[in-house]
Structure formats: structure tokens, C-alpha cells
Specification:
459 residues; alpha/beta; Serine Threonine Protein Phosphatase 5, Tetratricopeptide repeat; five-stranded antiparallel beta sheet; elongated
Length: 459
């Protein structure tokens, strides 16, 4: 009896399996419908109208000639259709995917899965470290997606903060399949001056419009405009990863090391064909303002070509030599600043002083205490210079209660009592937030300035 039950169970499972396979099969009617939709979408959306029509026609010819007959497995059909789409010009963004719609009650689960994956790989930046020779290294496996745009920016900001004292930087985008171009522009912004750099011009043929991609004018952190940069690429670097390398190569801001990249240069749009098939069509062309073209179909050609196994070591050797040269120049510049700062005296004018202070602080040569001391040095003889130095310190260290207290002293010396009161109150507010041990001093200053204001009103 037991064996008989087992046999019945096996037979039942086989019937269910056959039924499930039959239910999942692609019918001729469904195949005809999705091919028709793909053909129409290609003609309307594809970046090149003539090539779009050519691929569209080829699909219809293949269907008419029975090339897809008997292809009932959805994954196999998606594969065959993708082969046809790419046959005309090798566009790697063209593809058909068997992607059944998620049920409504599983959306939250799917969203959680996406977040889990993002967490696992730290939003595309799984590794940041300092190599021997003070060479910064940043591994980028993805330029993320729009869902995690702000979070990825935050991770990149923190990563660049960690690398800001490096004497050379290696960005590794090997095996990186792309992401959001705006994140590429954001990361590139750390390597250029404030004036926005035109990285690419995007164009949509189907709606006859476009837009430019530029580096950011404002970024949260230090700009590393002189630090030598190296970008590692390989044959699997694609799309946005290729843009990163291509932009920096042609702006002459980085040395590209490795293999020729994949050559997926167009921007892609997804179009759902039915409940289980999606087609991806290249609908956005980007033109580099320097080369007047892009890397579609040809890839990014490295400045230094290497074998796969030797890419990292080659880049590390190159970065090591560049770091030594940069270090020599950097120390020379810092010594010049030290000399200038040491020679600040009563004859120095305000703009000269502020310029030197900014450069020295940016170079890590002085901090808020040094700047405060310099401000107090001028407090008695030239309080207008003192005020400007203290005010600069509040901008450089906006979360320091002490610098706002000193700024209040500078304003008080100029008899700007109401402004001084605001500065002292700001010192108290920040002091409470950070747990300052100088609160009694700040409160006494407020009381003192309030008495001066009251006396001023009486008189």
C-alpha cells in the first residue's frame, strides 16, 4: 500500500510538472504579438532610424521564414530574439528578457531583495583603502540605480573623504556593468575645479531633444584637481563604467589601464511587451564634446593596454611613480604656503591674508585654533581684519562653538553689538549640541553684550 501511494504521488507530480510546462509555453499567437511590438518599438525609439527599421524588418522576415517556430520555452525565445536584435550592429544594450511581472503582494519582498543586494555591496562601492606609497584605491562594481541615487552619492562622498590625502588614486571599474550617468558625473566632480565641465551631450532621436551632462559646481568635500588618477578597465566594463573611463581619458584627467571595454555606449529604455517579456532598446545617444563621437561598438581604448592578470600591478607601478612626483610638487607648494603664512604681519592686506589662510587650511597646514590665534593677533590694532579672519573660521568650521564665540569678540571690538550677540548665541546653540565645556564663558559673553546694548539704548 505504501509503495502504491508513492507511485500515485510521483504520477501526480509528473502531471503537475507537465501542466506547469504547458502553461508556461509560448504560443504562436503570443510570439507573433511580441515580435510585432518589438518591431514597432525599434522603428520608433531606436537611436538610428534606418538601423531600427533594418532590425525590425529582419525580425519579421525571421518570423515569416519560421526561424522561431517550435521555440516554446520563454527563455530560449528571449535568447533567440536578442541574437537577432544584435545581429545588425552588435548593440549590446538591445535585448529581450523573460521577466514575468511580480504579483502585487510580492512587491515589498522584491523591494527588500533589492535593498539587501545594495547593502551587501555597499551601494556599488565595496572596497576603499590606502595602498603602499599612499595610493588611494576605490573599487566600484556598479554606478547604482535611481532608487539608491542619494545613498550611493553619500557612500561616494565618504569614500572620497577617506582618499582625499592620497598622492595618487586608482579607480577600479573592472566588471562594472554600468548604472546612472549622473553618479559618474558626481564622482568625476571631485577631480575637477568648481567650474562645471561638459562631459557629454545626450540626444533622443524619437523626440528630437537632448540634454548635457556636467560635473557638479558644488560637492561635499575636497576637490582633488592635481592628484594623479588611474582607471582600471576590462572587457566586461560597460555602459556607465565606460563613460567614467571615457570622460576622464579625453579630459586628460586620468590614465586608463587594462583591456578594451565592452562598447555599450547608448542609453537604454525598457518596454514591457506583455506580462512576461520586456524589450530593451537603445534610445539615447551620447556625444562627447571633445571626440564628437562615443565608444559604442568600439569600447574605451586604454592608454596602457595590459593582459587581464597584470592590470592591477601595472597600474600600481604607474601610480607609485606618479605619486612620488606629485608628493615632491605637493611638499614644495606646502613649503611655499608655510613661508607665506609665517610672513603675515601688520603690513599684509586683508585679501592676501584670507587667501593664504584658505590655502593653508585646505592643505592641512593650519586648523581652527591657528586661525583663531591669527584673528586675535589683529584684534587690538586692526579689528576689521580680525573680524574677517574670525568670520572665515566660522565658514571653515561651522560646527565649532569656539570659533563663533571668537567671531563675536571680533564684532564686539568693532562695536557691532547686535551682530556680536547673534554670534555669541550661535556659540551657545552649537555648544549645547556638541556638549562644550565652555558654556559658562559663552553665556557670560551674552550677558555682557546685552548690558552694553541696554546701556546704548539708555544713552
Amino acid at each position: 500500500m505504501k509503495r502504491f501511494l508513492i507511485i500515485l504521488i510521483v504520477i501526480a507530480m509528473s502531471i503537475i510538472s507537465v501542466y506547469s510546462q504547458t502553461k508556461n509555453e509560448v504560443t504562436v499567437k503570443e510570439r507573433n504579438a511580441i515580435i510585432e511590438k518589438i518591431a514597432d518599438s525599434l522603428e520608433f525609439y531606436y537611436v538610428n532610424h534606418d538601423i531600427g527599421k533594418q532590425i525590425s524588418l529582419q525580425l519579421k522576415i525571421n518570423e515569416k521564414n519560421g526561424l522561431y517556430n517550435g521555440t516554446i520555452n520563454p527563455d530560449t525565445l528571449a535568447f533567440k530574439l536578442t541574437e537577432t536584435l544584435r545581429s545588425a550592429n552588435g548593440d549590446l544594450h538591445l535585448s529581450v528578457s523573460h521577466s514575468p511581472k511580480k504579483k502585487t503582494n510580492s512587491n515589498n519582498s522584491n523591494n527588500l531583495d533589492n535593498h539587501k543586494q545594495a547593502f551587501t555591496f555597499n551601494y556599488g562601492v565595496p572596497e576603499v583603502k590606502i595602498l603602499e606609497g599612499n595610493i588611494g584605491y576605490m573599487k566600484i562594481i556598479s554606478f547604482s540605480n535611481w532608487n539608491f541615487f542619494e545613498k550611493t552619492k553619500s557612500v561616494m562622498t565618504t569614500s572620497m573623504k577617506f582618499l582625499e590625502n592620497s598622492d595618487a588614486i586608482i579607480f577600479d571599474v573592472r566588471d562594472n556593468r554600468g548604472g546612472v550617468p549622473n553618479l559618474v558625473a558626481f564622482l568625476c566632480s571631485y577631480l575637477f575645479d568648481e567650474e562645471p565641465v561638459h562631459l557629454a551631450q545626450y540626444y533622443h532621436r524619437y523626440r528630437n531633444d537632448g540634454y548635457g551632462l556636467y560635473t557638479y559646481k558644488y560637492i561635499p568635500g575636497k576637490r582633488l584637481t592635481k592628484v594623479p588618477v588611474f582607471v582600471l578597465v576590462n572587457e566586461k566594463s560597460a555602459s556607465a563604467a565606460e563613460e567614467f573611463a571615457y570622460f576622464l581619458k579625453h579630459q586628460k584627467r586620468a590614465i586608463i589601464v587594462g583591456e578594451v571595454t565592452m562598447g555599450a555606449g547608448y542609453g537604454v529604455m525598457s518596454h514591457r511587451l506583455n506580462d512576461r517579456f520586456i524589450v530593451y532598446i537603445s534610445s539615447e545617444e551620447d556625444i562627447n564634446p571633445i571626440t564628437k563621437t562615443n565608444f559604442e561598438g568600439v569600447g574605451v581604448i586604454p592608454n596602457v593596454k595590459t593582459e587581464k592578470h597584470n592590470t592591477f600591478n601595472t597600474a600600481k607601478d604607474l601610480a607609485g611613480k606618479a605619486a612620488e612626483d606629485y608628493k615632491t610638487q605637493k611638499y614644495g607648494r606646502l613649503q611655499t604656503l608655510v613661508d607665506k603664512y609665517s610672513n603675515i604681519n601688520e603690513n599684509s592686506n586683508l585679501s592676501e591674508i584670507i587667501d593664504i589662510v584658505k590655502k593653508c587650511q585646505n592643505g592641512g597646514l593650519i586648523g581652527r585654533t591657528d586661525i583663531n590665534r591669527l584673528g586675535y593677533k589683529y584684534l587690538e590694532n586692526d579689528p576689521s581684519i580680525s573680524e574677517a579672519i574670525f568670520q572665515l573660521n566660522t565658514k571653515l568650521y561651522p560646527m565649532s562653538s569656539n570659533v563663533f564665540d571668537s567671531y563675536g569678540d571680533g564684532l564686539k571690538a568693532l562695536k557691532k553689538f547686535e551682530e556680536a550677540l547673534k554670534a555669541y548665541k550661535q556659540a551657545v546653540e552649537i555648544g549645547k549640541r556638541i556638549g562644550s565645556s565652555n558654556m559658562s564663558v559663552y553665556l557670560a559673553n551674552i550677558k555682557n553684550i546685552e548690558l552694553l546694548l541696554a546701556d546704548k539704548k539708555i544713552n
